[in-house]
Amino acid sequence: MKIKLITIGKTDRQEIKALQDLYTQRLERYVNFVELNIPDLKNTRKLTEAQQKDKEGTLILKELQPGDKLVLLDENGKMFTSVGFSDYLQKEMNSGLKQLVFVIGGPYGFSEEVYRKAQGKISLSKMTFSHQMIRIFFIEQLYRGFTILKNEPYHHR
């Protein structure tokens, strides 16, 4: 199974990017992982929140392949423990799924069309984090999930 993380907007802090790269590099030992960054929209001052979400949604959906499972990182999604998330990953791998696609939306969330296409929602916390920080948290949890599945000492049970 391949895992793709789609994000909106770039990471502009080098410290954050360095941590993101560290966990991405570690994760690649376990799974084919790709991050796809969709650049921030230009001239958004003239757009309503709904228009911005629709434009971002179109760009997100354009990146999906037939058979992909789309899961949104959303504040109203299901919450997991780290062990529970590793079980979720194992279940998806066992299902024969070709590609699992997670998406971190833009500043206003997701369009209605993206919500309709999604096959799941996951929340990492009831707190709100910056879109740059959530990337690190999510990639680290993917890495942690795979180390749990491999019974490696990174996650102490």
What's the short story on this structure?
It comes from Robertkochia marina. This protein has 157 residues and is α/β, with parallel strands linked by helices.
The CATH topology assignment is Alpha/beta knot
CATH superfamily: SPOUT methyltransferase, trefoil knot domain
User: Which structural class should the secondary elements be placed in?
Assistant: alpha/beta
Rounded to the nearest angstrom, the distance between the terminal CA atoms is 26 Å
Which residues sit in consecutive blocks of at least 5 with pLDDT less than 50? none
Strand content: 15-25%
Treating each run of at least 4 consecutive H or I residues as one helix, how many helices?
A: 5
Text of the CATH class: Alpha Beta
Task: Trace the largest sheet across and list its strands.
Answer: 2-1-4-3-5
Structure description:
By secondary structure, the protein is α/β, with parallel strands linked by helices. It is built from five helices and five strands, in the order E-H-E-H-E-H-E-H-E-H. It has one domain (2-149): Alpha/beta knot. The chain has helices spanning 14-27, 49-62, 82-94, 112-117, 131-149, and strands spanning 2-8, 32-38, 69-79, 99-104, 120-123. Strands 2-1-4-3-5 form a five-stranded parallel β-sheet. Strand 3, helix 3 (82-94) and strand 4 form a beta-alpha-beta unit. Helix 1 packs parallel to helix 5 and helix 3 (82-94) crosses helix 5. The radius of gyration is 15 Å and the shape is globular. The relative contact order is 0.24. Homodimer.
